[in-house]
């Protein structure tokens, strides 16, 4: 037993022995203390694995010691890491006694003995120690350790400054895990004081509430009465104190944004004690809600959401019609302002969780109807697109739909919890408030019904059809009297729908129609499952279109005498309706025989346009009539014979025109079905039909389509918000907002410029009022004249303001038209993309390339906003796809033989297969393509502002080498014919890149290649003849590109031994080397001599001046640290400039003369060995050299009197300046002539120089110095 207790009780006997075992074991503890959670968890796992494998008592004792010490670490991240590690170790090694570890914790983190600075660490050490014992799962089993831990937590509860309410919460957690017998035997006596003071703090109340729910046998009403004087917690006497405690709990946990545990436990206890109604009405509604504070209100809302699963049906109805619900509704309305906390999403989650967990239909229905009845002036607070209804049972969903329909027909605000905000009460008009409430409620109900079909709730086909018929009926029809044949007439409207209400329901119906078109097949039958596997949408389980069922229902309504249409049909419209139904039935018979997808697409389009007869009769009639004619011709037996008549356009052309007009509609459903129909008629598309589509994209024909563009008025935009499901015209809003500020600023600038007409009118008004008389009249105007003048001026300015506003409105209208036009073109691009996808092998693909290229060119050369950039990007993507299809089309024409345009020479016979592959053009019209690219290349090299770039042509030549030969002559021509020097340089650069392509020689014979090189050299020669002084950047660029190209051409001539005359080029290049030629540019000089070396010219070496340092000059000697160099000493300063009273003779340009050029007796002064003065030139120019009181300032100049004071001052300044320069000169010399890199030859030369200098010194001493 002693061996078992040793790991936890005894200290480490030999800690050095543990430490000697290696660094890996100690690194575990360092990783446990790191802030990264993943590192801590990994270190804990590795430590446990190491201890299990080793089974060494010393390591286990050391581990417990280190972990206990780490519980009170200063770093916050280290404490939970050590606590978790200790819990895992205690759980893995059950032989370690819990009590011994607890004693270690108390001893190590003793709160009484620790210093005042370390009280916080000690408190956390004890707390995390108890947490480790509790998390190990062994604390509840050891009664002694449990008792001591509870006592320690009670002691830690007094340290609220550091730990706050953590000890109390841990105590509650421990008590919730303790069995009732252990609680009664061990903990009840210790916790009696805390339980008796339950109303002193929220923590103590929470402890009591947990105990009542966990240990009902111990905390009986009789024992509760002994503890705090009442057998129940929730009663009238305790309500005021409970309200105070709940308010305190709400404020203490406001940052956590969750319901405090004590509040939820109090709710459960009130239900257990059958006092929920008292608690809710007195405690919550009349208690907590009276304090208008955010945390308390949000706590009440969370309590409402949390209470939903716990309440019965009667309790739910009481709560959902109480003050908390109304208070919540007011919050939702007022929180719509920005920067306000919104609780609605959180309440949505509470409702979703309740409906998901509840199986009771009545309770589900009560909650959904309760929140739908919370209205703000008739409009429910719950979102009409709430997704919580997806959990409703089918029966509950059907009842909810019936309730919605009943409220639509007969609005009953007595069953609703309606309210108005303070601002609404101030601004409301009592006259039309009842009608306003009804309209708002009906709008919400219509959207709620339409959204139920889109919601993923489990529903039957009958329910979907019921909702669709209801919306369709009230959108376009009115009931005269009840009839059993039409269920929508069973209940008549209590308040009839006005025109605005019909329009609102109509908009939501077309959104519902879009949902039906994309609805998956409903039902559990095998046929429905098969249709779902085929991804078929918009049909019922028996294969019928939803829209067809609605058209049948509409036909039934039109033939009934008990209802009337809101917009009755004329005779022509009725005939078109009946004709449409007959055509659709004929198509249904052909569905099994011909292309079913094509038939279904035409059916959808016909049925949709038939329903649109109820909405917009005049515009739909023309489209429907043409559509019927096209449909009959498209499915007739001999459609090809009718296409031969050129006088009348074919059905495909008419169909394309119809689809283009439908693409401009605002309805998303119309556009989708139109695109679907276009995909089906793509195989029948003709060149004329395709041209109709391409004309829309033509940037030069935009003025023709302005008539088709209609800008919506403000009234239309207001109705647009009601079409959430069907309309998608919101793309223009971002562009409008982006450009609005720019337009406003531009208008302001234009308004500043007053036009002449207004100026003249203003002058006439002022002259009429005699205010411009000047000196002719000094009389002042009377009051009547002044008033009349003011009136005339105000009228004039008002008219001017109207004119300015009219111009501004016109400009705004044009901007909106441009946005709509661009949006329409983007939709048309979708058709072209669909054509390329479905008909990739159609030869009409080639007709798309050129128009797309024009669109790209026009967009790139203009200022583009975001919408235009998107349009350009989409066009470029489609253009790339069309170019990619060239390969597909080239390979698909198998009947055309692949022939070579020119024979290959015999020496290239080994690469004939490759040439065949490169030269094969398939069905490509090379002549037409060549003309197009020649025009583009000419435009690029002649026009100043071109949207094309050199990289485009280089990419073309690289990807399609077959285009090199037809275009290379154009490049050669524009070396001299380019519009500007920059474009001539671009021609040289592009020609050089083309000549570097090895595929180019495969397309040319040797004679053609030699002629190309000869012509290129000739053009470059002519270009270089026109070069003047290279002072302009563009001219330098041209010369550089010409020399680069010339370098390649001469290299080719030399290597391939071509017969090209270079005499003229030689003369031009030699003339270019003159000073007025290429100038002093180092780059041009380098390129020039690279070219000249192919003509056997070599670059001459520059003559070095005498004052520059020689390469064999002696290096500086290494200076000794701490010693002043000889040249810096005062007595040796003048030795470098004066010797025997003779100054060195300088030339006119200030450079010291050579020894043979100097007069007799004027020799070069001796310089110290190893010094190579770089600044000697400047010294001879700037420093006056004294000689017998006479200063010599260069040869040939007059001497200046040495007594001049001004000259002396200048000399001193120059000497100081030269002294500073010497320091830098010595360093430069040392860098220029490093001693470490000398060769043997240079060393021998230096020794010879030293000997020669020594002889000169001896001669100077013997030879007398002649005086001038």
Automatic annotation (TrEMBL):
Pfam families (UniProt xref): DNA_pol_phi
UniProt keyword list: Nucleus
Signal peptide start-end: none
Matches recorded under InterPro entries: DNA_pol_V/MYBBP1A
Protein's UniProt keywords contain Nucleus: yes
Principal location class: nucleus
Species annotation: Falco tinnunculus (Common kestrel)
Compositionally biased intervals (Basic and acidic residues): 714-723, 1176-1186
Protein name as annotated: MYB binding protein 1a
Region (Disordered): 707-755, 1100-1268
Biased composition (Basic residues): 1117-1137, 1209-1223, 1252-1261
Subcellular location: Nucleus
Source taxon at top rank: Eukaryota
GO cellular component: nucleolus
GO terms for MF: RNA binding; sequence-specific DNA binding; transcription corepressor activity
Regions of compositional bias (Acidic residues) in chain numbering: 724-755
């Amino acid at each position: 037993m002693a061996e078992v207790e040793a790991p936890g009780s005894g200290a480490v006997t030999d800690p050095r022995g543990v430490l000697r075992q290696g660094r890996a074991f100690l690194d575990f503890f360092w990783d446990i203390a790191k802030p990264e959670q993943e590192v801590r968890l990994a270190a804990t796992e590795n430590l446990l694995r190491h201890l299990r494998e080793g089974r060494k008592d010393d390591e286990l004792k050391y581990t417990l010691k280190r972990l206990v010490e780490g519980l009170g670490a200063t770093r916050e991240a280290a404490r939970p890491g050590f606590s978790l590690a200790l819990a895992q170790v205690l759980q893995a090694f059950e032989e370690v006694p819990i009590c011994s570890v607890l004693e270690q914790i108390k001893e190590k983190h003793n709160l009484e003995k620790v210093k005042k600075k370390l009280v916080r660490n000690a408190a956390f050490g004890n707390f995390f120690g108890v947490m480790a014992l509790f998390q190990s799962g062994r604390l509840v089993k050891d009664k002694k350790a449990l008792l001591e831990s509870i006592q320690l937590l009670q002691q830690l509860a007094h340290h609220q400054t550091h730990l706050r309410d953590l000890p109390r919460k841990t105590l509650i957690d421990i008590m919730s895990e303790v069995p009732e017998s252990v609680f009664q035997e061990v903990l009840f006596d210790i916790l009696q004081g805390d339980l008796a003071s339950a109303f002193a703090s929220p923590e103590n109340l929470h402890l009591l509430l947990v105990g009542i729910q966990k240990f009902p046998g111990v905390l009986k009403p009789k024992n509760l009465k002994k503890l705090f004087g009442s057998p129940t917690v929730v009663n009238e006497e305790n309500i005021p104190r409970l309200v105070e405690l709940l308010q305190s709990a709400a404020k203490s946990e406001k940052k956590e944004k969750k319901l405090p545990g004590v509040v939820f436990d109090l709710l459960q206890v009130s239900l257990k004690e059958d006092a929920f109604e008292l608690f809710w009405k007195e405690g919550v509604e009349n208690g907590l809600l009276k304090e208008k504070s955010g945390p308390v209100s949000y706590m009440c809302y969370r309590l409402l959401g949390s209470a939903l699963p716990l309440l019965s049906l009667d309790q739910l109805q009481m709560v959902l019609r109480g003050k908390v619900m109304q208070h919540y509704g007011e919050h939702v309305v007022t929180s719509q302002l920005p920067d306000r906390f919104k609780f609605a999403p959180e309440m949505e989650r509470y409702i979703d969780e309740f409906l998901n967990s509840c199986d009771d239909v009545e309770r589900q229905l009560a909650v959904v109807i309760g929140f739908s009845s919370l209205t703000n002036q008739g409009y429910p607070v719950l979102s009409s697109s709430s997704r919580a209804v997806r959990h409703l049972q089918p029966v509950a969903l059907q009842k909810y739909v019936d309730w919605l329909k009943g409220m639509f027909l007969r609005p009953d605000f007595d069953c609703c919890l309606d309210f108005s905000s303070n601002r609404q009460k101030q601004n409301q008009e009592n006259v039309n408030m009842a009608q306003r409430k009804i309209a708002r409620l009906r709008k919400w109900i219509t959207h709620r019904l339409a959204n139920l079909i889109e919601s993923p709730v489990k529903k039957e086909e009958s329910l979907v059809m019921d909702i669709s018929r209801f919306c369709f009926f009230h959108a376009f029809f009115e009931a005269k009297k009840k009839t059993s044949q039409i269920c929508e007439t069973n209940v008549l409207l209590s308040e009839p729908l006005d025109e605005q209400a019909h329009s609102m329901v109509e908009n939501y119906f077309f959104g519902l129609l879009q949902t039906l078109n994309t609805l998956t097949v409903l039902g559990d039958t095998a046929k429905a499952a098969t249709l779902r596997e085929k991804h078929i949408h918009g049909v019922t389980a028996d294969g019928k279109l939803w829209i067809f069922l609605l058209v049948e229902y509409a036909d039934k309504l039109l033939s009934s005498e008990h209802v009337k249409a809101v917009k009755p049909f004329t005779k022509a419209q009725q005939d078109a309706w009946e004709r449409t139904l007959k055509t659709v039935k004929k198509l249904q018979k052909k569905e099994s025989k011909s292309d079913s997808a094509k038939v279904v697409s035409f059916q959808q389009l016909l049925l949709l346009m038939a329903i649109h007869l109820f909405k917009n009769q005049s515009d739909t009639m023309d489209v429907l009539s043409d559509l019927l004619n096209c449909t009959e011709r498209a499915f007739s037996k001999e459609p090809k014979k009718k296409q031969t008549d050129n006088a009348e356009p074919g059905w495909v052309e008419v169909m394309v025109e119809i689809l283009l007009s439908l693409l401009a509609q605002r309805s998303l459903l119309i556009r989708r079905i139109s695109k679907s129909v276009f995909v089906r008629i793509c195989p029948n598309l003709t060149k004329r039909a395709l041209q109709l589509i391409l004309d829309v994209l033509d940037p030069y024909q935009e003025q023709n389509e302005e008539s088709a563009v209609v800008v919506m008025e403000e009234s239309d935009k207001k109705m647009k918000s009601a079409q959430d499901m069907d309309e998608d015209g919101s793309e223009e809003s971002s562009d409008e907002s982006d450009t609005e500020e720019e337009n406003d600023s531009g208008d302001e600038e234009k308004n500043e410029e007053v036009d002449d007409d207004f100026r003249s009118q203003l002058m006439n008004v002022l002259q009429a009022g005699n205010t411009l008389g000047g000196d002719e009249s000094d009389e002042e105007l009377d009051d009547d004249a002044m008033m009349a003048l003011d009136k005339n001026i105000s009228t004039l300015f008002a008219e001017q303001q109207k004119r300015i506003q009219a111009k501004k409105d016109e400009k705004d209208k044009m901007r909106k038209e441009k946005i709509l036009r661009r949006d329409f073109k983007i939709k048309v691009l979708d058709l072209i993309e669909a054509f390329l996808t479905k008909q990739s092998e159609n030869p009409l693909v080639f007709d798309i390339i050129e128009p797309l290229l024009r669109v790209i060119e026009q967009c790139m050369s203009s200022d583009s906003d975001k919408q235009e950039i998107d349009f350009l990007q989409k066009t470029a993507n489609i253009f790339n796809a069309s170019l990619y299809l060239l390969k597909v089309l080239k390979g698909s024409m198998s009947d055309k033989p692949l022939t070579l345009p020119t024979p290959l020479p015999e020496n290239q016979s080994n690469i004939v297969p490759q040439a065949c592959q490169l030269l094969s053009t398939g069905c490509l019209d090379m002549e037409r393509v060549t003309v197009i690219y020649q025009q583009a290349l000419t435009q690029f090299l002649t026009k100043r502002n071109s949207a094309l770039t050199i990289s485009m042509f280089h990419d073309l030549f690289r990807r399609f080498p077959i285009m090199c030969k037809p275009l290379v002559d154009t490049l050669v021509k524009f070396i001299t014919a380019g519009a500007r020097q920059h474009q001539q340089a671009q021609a040289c650069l592009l020609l050089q890149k083309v000549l570097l392509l090895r595929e180019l020689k495969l397309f040319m014979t040797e004679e053609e290649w030699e002629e190309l090189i000869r012509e290129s050299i000739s053009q470059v020669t002519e270009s270089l003849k026109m070069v003047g002084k290279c002072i302009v950047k563009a001219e330098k660029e041209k010369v550089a590109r010409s020399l680069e190209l010339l370098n390649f051409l001469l290299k080719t001539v030399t290597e391939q031994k071509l017969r090209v005359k270079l005499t003229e080029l030689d003369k031009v290049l030699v003339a270019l080397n003159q000073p007025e030629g290429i100038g002093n540019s180092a780059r041009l000089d380098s390129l020039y001599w690279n070219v000249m070396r192919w003509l056997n010219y070599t670059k001459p070496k520059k003559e070095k001046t005498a004052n520059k340092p020689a390469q064999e000059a002696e290096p500086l000697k290494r200076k000794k640290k701490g010693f002043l160099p000889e040249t810096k000493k005062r007595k040796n300063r003048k030795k470098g400039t004066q010797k025997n009273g003779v100054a060195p003779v300088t030339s006119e340009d200030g450079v010291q003369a050579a020894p043979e050029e100097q007069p007799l007796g004027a020799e070069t002064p001796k310089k110290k060995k190893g010094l190579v003065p770089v600044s000697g030139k400047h010294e001879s120019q700037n420093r006056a050299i004294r000689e017998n009181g006479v200063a010599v300032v260069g040869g040939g100049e007059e001497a200046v009197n040495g007594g001049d004071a001004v000259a002396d001052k200048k000399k001193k300044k120059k000497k100081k300046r030269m002294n500073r320069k010497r320091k830098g000169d010595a360093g430069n010399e040392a860098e220029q002539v490093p001693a470490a890199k000398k060769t043997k030859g240079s060393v021998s030369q230096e020794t010879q120089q030293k000997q020669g200098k020594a002889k000169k010194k001896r001669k100077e001493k013997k030879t007398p110095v002649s005086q001038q």
